[in-house]
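To whoever is on call:

I kicked off a structure prediction for a single chain this morning and the downstream step that reads the tokens threw a length-mismatch warning. I double-checked the sequence; it's 329 residues and nothing unusual in it as far as I can see. Pasting both halves so you can look.
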Amino acid sequence: MKKLSGWQKAGMIAGVVCVSFLLLIAIGVAVAVLYARSTLAQLGDTTPTRVERTIVVVGATSAAAAPSAAAEAEAAGKTTSAAPLRLTIDLEEGSFTIRPGSPGGQVQVQGTYAPGLYDLTETHDSEPDGARRSTIRFRSKAPAWARILSGLGDSGGRPELTVLIPPASPMNLALRVSMGESRIDLGGLTLGELDLKLSMGEHRIEFGEPVVGALRRMRLDASMGDVSIEHLGNARSQALETSASMGNLTADLGGEWATGSDASLTFSQSMGELTLRVPTNVRLETDFRNADGEPQQPVPDTKNPADPNAPRLRVRVQSSMGESRVVRY
């Protein structure tokens, strides 16, 4: 038998090492998959199931008693002002639709998800000022690595939920959606304050019709995803603040702004594009600045309406590492 040269011995050793290394990786992956499936099996059924759930956030008893309580207070020469409901909806990992439900109803949650993999929870309490507070959360019970390794990362039935909010209930609303996509229509709701926190996905916000009441403040935080807002004028917010990063934000300022209204809109954008679509029937005052505070003027040369009662929008934009533009229509 011919004696192997030094290079041949080195090649043989390298080949054995490579084969052993690949074999160890294969064994490690197999063990990880078995462990992941075992972890999921302990959580329960991973089969997607149809869910319809009513979450009571407005007490029917207290609502029915409200007229008589108001009448008694009026007879006594007193005024009453019930604090609005403070509703928080926190959703993660899935495809979500949020829109108005039936007048006078409760919050309805409908959709499909695996009860063994995800939790839908609710909590209710009261603030010191007497305001009711309700929180609805949808979260994964299984770690992401376990779902991916077990083969359920993409093919295990992605959750799809629809949340219906009663439009006639006065509330301050906080919406948080992460790691998924959302379609949100808040038109027709009775809102005092609105906080939106959207991240890691594509999100569309719409005000299909004017909100009820006076929306004092609206706040939007967006990151790591693309966000669009339609018919922002129907929100009729007196003050709007947005902060967006690592993604694009498109805001349509059309809609039914109240005649003679004066709104202050602030947009902060970094690492992404900002596009503002502004109708020509509103008066637009702008202050655009870059990250160094130097003024910019990307607004097209379009005259404001001559009507002194036309809604006035005072828009302030600060952007960095991205383009900001205004499109008038």
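Update from on-call: the warning came from a stale cache, not from the record. Cleared it. Sanity check on the structure: Residues 102 and 133 are 21 Å apart (CA to CA).
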